[in-house]
Every structure is written in C-alpha cells, then in structure tokens.
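When time allows, look over one protein, given below as sequence and tokens. The question is which stretches look regular and which look disordered:
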Amino acid sequence: MSDSQVEIISSSSGLGSRRRTWTELLAGRVKRQTRCPGTEQKLQESAVLLLRRHLNLNDLLLEVEGAPRKMLCLSQLIDPEACPNLSSSFIGSALQDEASRLGLPVAVLSSRVVATSIAQICVSDGEPVHGVLLSAEQRKKLSSLLEVAQYLLAHSMFSRLSFCRELWEVQNTSLLEVMWHLHVQNVVSLQELLESRADVQATVAWLFGNLCLLCEQMEASPDSDVARAVLSDFVQMLVLRGFQKNSDLRRNVEPEQMGQLAVAVLQKMLVFALEALAAGMQDGSPQHKVVKCWFGMFCGHTYGRILAADSPKRFFSHTLTQVLTHKPVLRVSDAVQMQKEWSFAKTHPLLTGLYCRLFEILSPEELVGHLQEVLETHEVNWQHVLACVSTLVVCVPEAQQLVQDWVAQLLARAFESCDQDSMVTAFLVVRQAALEGPSVFPSYADWFQAAFGSSRGIHGCSKKTLVFLFKFLSDLVPFEAPQYMQAHVLHPPLVPSKYRSLLADYVSLAKTRLADLQVSVENMGLYEDLSSAGGVTEPHSRAHQDVEKAIAVFAHTGRVPAAVMEASIFRRPYYTTHFLPALLTPRALPKTPDSRAALIESLRRADKIPQSLYSAYCRACSAAEEKPENAAPGVTVEAICADEPLGPLAAALRELRAAMADPTQYDVVAARVAAVSERLGSALGHAEEDGSSEGWQVQLSVRTPGLEQQEQEVADLLLTCFCQNLIAASSFAPPDRQGPWASRLAAAMCAHRLLPVVLTRLCQLLRHQGPSLSASHVLGLAALAVHLAESGSAHPVVCVGLPAPAEGLTVAEFFSSLLTFRTSETLLFCLKFCTAVISYSLCRFSESSRDSLCHSLCPALVKKFQFIMFRLFAEARDPLCQEDTADPPWRALCRLSADWQHAALCLWRQRTFQELLKEEHLHLTYRDWLQLELEIQPEVDCLSDTERWDFHQWAIHEHFLPEPSAAGGCDGDLQAACTLLVDVLIDFCQSSISYNYSENSDLVLSGCTGNRDIFSRLQEMAADLEQGPVAPRGCSPPPGHFLFGVFRRRLQALASGWDVATRLQRQQLLLTCQRILLGLPPSVVVGSPQARQLAAPDCTEFFHLVNSELRNFSGGSALPRDLTVHFFRGLLNACSQSRDPCLTADLVLTTSQTECPLVLTSALLWWPHLEPELCHRWGRCLQGPWPRELQRLREAWQFGRSCLSPDTASPAPDPAWLSAAALYFAIQRARGDRAGSRLQRLGCQGEELLVPLFFFSLMGLLSSHLTPQGRPHQAVDTLKALDICAELLGCLGKRRISWLVLFQVTETDGSLGHVLLRLAPDQHVRLLPFAFYSLLPYFDEDTLTREEAFLHVAVDMYLKLIRLFVAGETGAISAVASRSQELRAQGDPVDLITKARRFLLRSIPRCPRESFSNMAELLATSADCDPDVRAALLSRQQAGPDADLYQEPRLF
C-alpha cells in the first residue's frame, strides 16, 4: 500500500473541511528542521508515541487490495450483523499491515485496538452501564471480539501486558463480567489483570466496589448463573492467591503483591458484611443482599476445584479469626449480662449460616482448637465468640464432648495458676452452650453440680483454690442473671467444714442480690431449669409444672418425690403458697384414683397437707361432681390464652418450610429450627426445661396414651409440618440431598418437655390409629423415626410399663414396639411403616459406611419386615435369582398412590438390603420368628388355617431347621428346634405382652394368650422325636427328656429366696412349665420302655421336678389333679408297651414310695376322678387284674373312707403313711359334723398311723393359714383344721404316743422322716414352730414331766419362731389373719410369740432336771433371742438337786 492510499480521518471535530494526508503533515516539519544523525530514530519514536496517545482506532480505515477504495471501522469488524463474512485472519492481516507501515509492534497495536473496542462495547447507548454484568447484545459482541483476540494471541500478535495496561486506562467503562470472560476464554487471566496495575489500593477499591455491586444484583439478574459463576471464579482466585502456601516466584511482579491484594479485598468484604450485621440491616435492603450473597460463597462446592490445596482451609480459619476478633469493644461484664441474647435462635441467621459454612471444611477438633487459640492470643468480640459456641454445639454434635473437655482443661488451668481469664472463658462457654437446651448440652445446674458438687472437684484441693472460686463467683454477682445465682445457692460447691465460712459469705451475698432483684430462692420451682435463656417466671406458673413433674415421678416410683418432701420442710413458703394450691385444684374425682389422687393421699397421710386446705379441696371436688354434665362452660381467659402461642409457632414452621424447600436457603435452616424450638416452650405453656437431665426417663402408657388438648395440638402441628415438609422435599431431591432440616427438626423435638408429648402422640397414631393413617403420614412418621433413632444414645430411655422390659426402651425400640400384629389391618400397616423406614434409611445413608447404615436401622423393625415378607409373600420364601441394583423404592412411595406391596417386594429384592440382612443383628432368626408368630391371633389372621399351617411347615422344616446355627437356625437338629420353641413359649408367657390380647385367643398358658398353632407345632415336633430312630444295641438312650432340661435351666436362672416377689415369679414359671407339660404326650412324664425291656421306665426327671419345685407349691401334700392324671396316663402308656405291664406299674409305683411319695398322695386325693379312667384304660388296652401297687392305692383310699363311716373299718394297708394320707383326705372331704366327732374312732389305731396323720393335719393347718386370698369359708377351714389337730393331739396323748419327733424330723430320720419331708413344702416345714404354738391351748400338762424332750423341743420351736418373725416369713400368715376377725386370735404371730414366751417362763421351773441335758447347744445359738428365757434356762440348769422341792406351786 502507498501513502496516498491511506487516509486518516481526524477524530477531532474542530478541524476544517479539507483533510490533509499524513505526508503533508510531516513535510512541513521536515523542511523546518535540520537533518542530523539519530534524528530519524527519534522521529520514529515520537510518531509512535503520538499515535498511541491520539489515534482513534475506531476510525482507522483499511483499504482492501484489489477492491474499490473503502472505509472500514473496527467497530464494524466485531459486529457480526454488519460484517458477517470477515474472518479473524483478515482482521489480523489488516492489523499486521498497518503496524508494519507505522513501524509499530503488531502486538501493541492489536492490544490497544481490542481494549478500545471492549470499552466501546461496555457503553450502552453512549452512556456507561451502572452495573457489572453485560446485556445479551453486549455479550454477543464481546464473544466476537474475543474470538479475534484469541486468534491474535495464538499467532503472537497480541500483548497481554499492553492489553492489561490499556484496559485499566478505560476501567471506568469496563465491566466485571468482561474481565471474567477474558479469564474464561484464556485471553488474560484475572490474576494478570489485577497484577498489571501498580496502584494496589485503587485496584482493591475498584474490585471491592464491583464485587458488592455484583452481590447486590445477583438475585435480580436474569442471568444469575453467569453472575454466580463470575463471583465464584473471582473468589476462588482471591482465596487461592491470597492464602497459598508458597508464592509464585516466576512472575515479574513482587511476590507478595497479589497476595496482599487478594487478602485486602477479602478482608474488606468481610468487614463490610460484619459492619452491616452490627448496624441492624433490614431484610431486602442492598446491604442485606450483598451480605447474604457474599456469605453464600463460603460453601464447600465453591472451592471444589481448589480443595486439593490448603488455601480454602487457611482462608476459613483466617475468616473465623477475623469474625471472632472484629471490633472487640465488649467487656467480660457485658458478656455475662447479655449472653442470653446471643443464643443460636436470637443470632442473625446470616451470621449463624456463615459459622455453619466455616464448620464444613474444618473438623470439630480443629474448630475447638482454633477457638481456644483465638481466645488465648487475641482480644475478642464476645458476642461473636459466644454465638459461635452456640452454633458449634447445635450444628456439630461431635463438638459437644470436645467443648466439655475444653472447659475441663480451662478449669484445670484456672485453678492451677488462679488464672482469671481461663475461669471467665470456661463459665461463659458453659453457660452459652447450656442455653441451647439439654438435648444439645447439659444444663448449667447439672454442670455446676458435677464440677463443684463432689469431693472429686478440682476446687477443693486447697484453701487457695476455694478462695479463688468464691472470689470469682462473688465478682460475677453484680452482673449475672438470677438463674445462675439460684443454681449456685441451691447446688453449692462441696466445701470442707473448716472453710464453710467462705460458702456462707457467698450465699449471703447472692441472696442479697436476689432480694434486690426481687427474686426469692424459696419461691423457685422444684424442677426449674436454672440455665434457661428466659427470665425468671412467676411462682404460680412454675407450680403447675412442678405438680405435673411430681405426679409423673410418683406414678413411676410409687413414692412421694424427694424434691416435694424437701420443699415441705426447707422451702415451706413456696410449698404451702404455690405448690399445694396447684396440686389441690378442684376437679371431678375419677372413680378409680389416678396418680394425682394417690399423691394427694400420700401427702395427707404424711401430714404434709394442712387439714383445713384438704377439707376445702374435698368440698370443692364434691361441688364439681354435682355440676350438671350438660352445663356449657363459658369462654374463659385461660382458653383464649391457650390458643395464642400456636400462632407464632405456626409462623416459625412456615418459615422453616420455606427455607427447607429452597436449596439455596439451606444455610438458614438451623436458624429456623432454633426459632421453632424457642417458640415451642411458650406454645406448651412451659418457658423452661427441667433443670436436671441425669437419669431422665420418658414415662408413658402404651395402652391408654393421653395428652392435654394444648399438648396434642402442638404435637399435631409439629408432626403435620414434618410430614408435609418431607413430601415437599422428596418431590425434588432424594433424602440424602435434602439438607439438614429433618435431623435438626427431629432434634428440636427431643427437649425434656416436648419429647414425652411427641412420643405419646406417636403412640396414639402408630399403635391405635395406624391402619387409618394416610400414605403421607406413614412416610413422614417413618422418616421421623429414622432421625430420632440417629442419636439414640443421647435420648432418654422410654418406660412404657408392661410389656416392655423394666430397664426401658430406646427410642428406636419404642417405635418397633408400637407395631403390633393384632389384626390383619395392623399387620399390613406394619408392612407399610417398615418399608418406609428401611427405604428412607437406605436413601438417607446411601453414601455412608455400612456401620452408619446399620446403626440407623432398628434391628427389631428390620426383623419384623422380614417376618411379614415371609408370611405374606410366597416370592420372599424362595431364593432370589437375581438381586435388583436399582435404588430403594422411596421415590415411588412418595407418589402417595404407590402400591405398597409392590414397593415392599422391590425393597426385598434390592441388593443393598439383602447385603444388610447378612449382618448378624439384622437377620431374622428362628427365635425371632417364633416370638413374632406368637403375637398373631388366628381368629383375625389374614392367612387361613391351611395357609397358616403351610407357612409354619415351610418356616420350621424348610427354612429354620436346616439353616446353620450361626445364621439363627437349628443345624438340622429337631430337638434343638423343640428346645428353642419351648424357651420362647416360656418367655412369651412370662412376659406381659401376651396380656394385650383378648381372652378369646387360642393359646392360653398361665393366663397368657397367643397363637395356639405354635403350640400345635411343638406337639407335632415332639411326636416326631418320639418316633425317631432307636438307640443302637449296646448304646444307652440319652437320659431324660429335653423338656425337663429346659425347665431345670430356666428355674435355676431365677433368684432364690422366700420373699413374696421371688416366690410369685417362681410360681408363675412353674405354672407355665406345668401347662406346657400337660400339652405334650404323657410319655414325656413316664418314658416308654426301650425295646420292650423289663426295666422300669425312667421317671427321674419328673420326680426331680416334683420334689424340688412342684412340692413347694402343692399347698396340700398333693399335686394338681390334671398333672396327677397326666402322670398315670403316662404310666399306663408305658405299661402298654412293656412285656409285663403289671411289673412295670409295680416298679414305677414302688419307686415312687421312696423317691416321689407326693405322686401317691396326689393319687389318693384325686382317686374318685382317677379310678374310673384307670379302670377304663387298663381294661381296654391291657386287661387282666390290676397291678399290686395300684390295688394298694385303691385299698388305702377305701380304708380312709371306711374309718369315718359307721361300719367296720377295713384294715390299713402298708405303708402306714399312705393310709394316713388317705384318712386325712377323707377327713378333709367330710362336711357337716365337726371333725372331732368323726375322729373318736381313731383311738384304736396304732402309732404308725396316728403320727403321720398328725403330720398331715399340721400341714393342713399351715395351708389354711397361708391361703393367699380369702375364700368364702376361709375362717371355717382354719378352725376345722385346728379342731382336727387338737383331736389328733388328744388321741396321741391318751395313747401316750410321742409326737414331738414330727417337729424335729430330718432327712436322716429313717424312712418316715425322709418320706414326710418329701410330702411337705419347705415353707410349711419352716413354719412348724407356728403350728406347734398354735396348739398351745391343747397341750397335755403331763407331757411336761413325762416327756424329757418336750422342753428341748418347746424352746427350739420358740427360738425358731422368733427367727421366722424377724426374717419376715410370718408376714404371709399375718396378712391372711388380718382379713378375718375370727382368725386374728389364731394367726397373729406377735400374739403367738407372747403366749409362747409366757408358757416357757411358767414351764421351765416345773420341768425335771433331765429335760435340761441338751440345752447347751440351744443356748449357744440363741444368745440374743430372748434374754429372759435364756436366764430362766440357765438358772434352772444350775440349780441344786433339791430345787424341785421348792418349785412354784402349780396354779393352772
């Protein structure tokens, strides 16, 4: 191109119309100057400088070769609409030619052209844009320009440095988005742009202003994604360069320049946000928008690309430090006074949200360590520090224990060096954490008592530490809230007695301060939370809370709470003025006294209620009962006030739902939940929580759960909100991506006052209304169950009474216990709930470890799901051909119209679930299946009888029997399966779960009801065992039946003792064992002879059970009728399988005479019922005469009946004790006449018969005294038994037969003693002293002198009677005697002991010296029993030979 072909259009509007060429402009200067060496070079440099300063590149014209002369502007080149056919190569070529002609570097020229063009793009309609984002048209033009710039850069025709400098010269028109596009399109990086400007402060100011503007415009911008990307990339660059570990030394700038710039910008943004928060900005204001957007950039995903570096962690730590140390103007005294206003709920949500985001990258240990370091090395803003502590304990559960450990370290350091700063920090941190409630952190009262209320406290090691502690507490008095002083006064530090003055001085100071604040320690509530964030409530409002708590404690323990008794003595003003009026609120008394009535009665009996107040209460209750039932109560102020708190609570729940539904607001969820928690207290009418969390238990009734109307409304509001929120959240995100709202709302439900309400309402819904719940309710409550079970160890145990275990249930176990199988409807509801819980857990913890997932699931609930699947779906019983890898069916369930059974099958086939079932604690075992199947009621079962039998056959014989024992099966051992079934049956009958069913159910064992079909399966399996293979020749069969082994093991596991509770527990187990035994074939009792051998069948196990256990509960020297008949059926069955039936029967019955005589006496008692069946069975199956021993039993019974008839009595068969038993039972059956007249004919009988008969009569006398419940003829029976004993005693006296041996009988006393002890319960034998002295009025006076052993026996019985009374074993007799006026004279142990003592003191002087020969042993063992009797015995024993001559005259 020639010079003439290039024209320059002047940018100045002041030039004339003629435009001269470039040559003409320079020609004049050439003529006026002298050419000299170097002039040309200088001229060229000046020309370039002139071009750079004054050339308007937008008016530069390029002439295309070969084309007509044409004016082309660069602004047209970047406009795709104006020049659609121009390529980047053409533009580059044109710039290169022009730079060559001008003698300029093409890179310099190109950079200036691009920079000027960018400035032109950023101007809208000739005016600068007030913003940081481009319009769509501008963005399109910029894109075309950047394509040209990328071409120039790729062909080395572009200078980044020159471009950056040119761009900064037009910074007033450049937008922030343009710089981001330059960075993204790899034209110039953001770091290069920022580093290229020398004035760092100006760059900081420019970037700060643009970032604020970008944050402000973020929400309103139609291109929010672009705006968010711009901000995110700028923040990443600033964090990476400002907090990198090593500077990049390869750059030509100072190493610290970029780092200083980045830190300055980030610091300026943070300070602006904190200043705006402190100024109290309004929601929706520009400052609020900036702060909200900027704090939103602290999310972890913002730094996802640079997380490999440590820059984000250093940045977060630095930011946390800056927040904690921003404007430290508050003093410690200010913090003590104001910290209750800095709780999590009252802190601005943006600040708590910032803390939560900072906590995401830093671990709990790092957070607590950093907080500790900042407090030790900086002056801090106490408001920010304590708000950080609240957020830490609320949002990071793992940090709670770390905070407690940190406080313990602070206390140790404080007392070690009397460090005031450490002490202040510890108390402020503890109080702040306690403000968040006991579900998050122990209450301040609990902490203070644990730290200083024991001898292990660190404060008590020296006087110096005690002085330091009380000096510190005294310094706090002018500033702290009254709740804390009340805690210090009511739970004072433990102080040695010699330093009690220090405590007294502090208590006096604190009480003075409380009096100045018009707060009384005496008027505090009994169960008040001394660390609550709220103010001190009025005594009358606290009294109602105390009454409810006291009633709950009384209902659980049965005793007046200790706090109430202490208040009645030490805090009497509050007790009489507030507590008693609240307790004695008039009402219509229930027909059956409830817990409130029982507590009132207990306090009245303890003289803790003034008589006048109690009388007024009774009159008011009577008036309330007389009020007509249809009287409509008026609208009261209390009713109106009760509804008012629900409005703020509902508003808070709506705000929570709005935050939960918007993923961009997850940062404020914690603040919304805290607001809900704060308003829950007022909604329930209780502004404060219980002060102590130690040993906290939730008490509720599963069968009759009840709530006040206000409580139920609050619970329904919470649960409805939770269910609705869950369905809404699940519509756009799976559970693992829904944020923390569910966990935090569930944690808010765990407050002391609220959790019992929620659990009670859940009990009403799930247990009593489950089948009527909608799908959304089932899903919501299932998710709530998962979240409540997440932190199970932090929750209290739930005590629901029977049928739950005494130690209580965890929350997860409580949910499982609510799911019952009473009807087919409840079974299907249980399937729905279990499906929802498991599906939610699998989705919620899909990315967690296996341990976390297993921990979230309740084993009992998973086993119930397996049980239902096996029971209802035949598909579940077959092995899975191919497991499903799809997600759990949670999303399908959320459609609400889903098929629950299809969803359950999908869950069953899911691979993750099947892998979970391999866990030992989640796998359904044979025992688990039996326990659950027993709960089924056949009459309302969804399976028919045939289907249920098929299911049982599959479950037992095909599934659990062949399964390995390690997997919960039986290893193919049928006997092991039977043993386990019997164990479960006993457990079921012993537990009270079976009492929940109606009395019409099938299985009835010891009063328990359940699935009778399970017992039928036991009978079938026991029959299969009997028909099993015979033991090989030469091998003896296994000893005994497996059933007796189970009975023996269960009985041995029970506690031993003779108290009422232990005896009742053992008796209940024995009744269960007896019922199971009666339900099985009689051959279990009397084993069948092996291979038709002549040996007697083995009855050892049954005899042992009778002698060791059943004998002690026989009550009358005989077994129950059904058990007796069952034994003889087994005997006949064994005879039928023997080669010699008569011999077999004789061997068994002969063995019974010595090994188990109780079987024979039982046969005599029930002979009228037993004989017909024996005759029928023997005659039908065996024929022939009766065995000799059976004939002996018949003869004994006939003898007993004949002795009381007017006819001649038949001779008494041997053994004599058997005939005596038959005679005694005949006497017992005699009605009408007095027994004495029937016994006059016994005088002709011998000693062998009368002595055991007298023994049986003594047992009858004791049995009549020990009858647990009064029968209609209880007194008559006792008097009749006493008459029988007296008549027999007279017969023995007339025949001069010694009967004293019966009161000293032992196992070694020959055959008679051995037999008699096996016929009497152990309790009866121990109570023989009572029977001995019950016959005192009937003793023959001649016996004193005739029987040398009488005095020895009388003294022995007296001493044993005293021991029985001291041990409390005569209590049963006293209880029965107290029910009848006629028995009081006979059954009062105290009166009997008094009479026995008088008898001995009168009798000892009259007894011959020979009677004292064996007194030494008795006196050696009874030194402390009765000193008077002991002295009388010693005096008579030491008297001379003539002492008998001077004995007292016989006056009676």
About this structure: DSSP finds 70 helices and six strands in the chain.
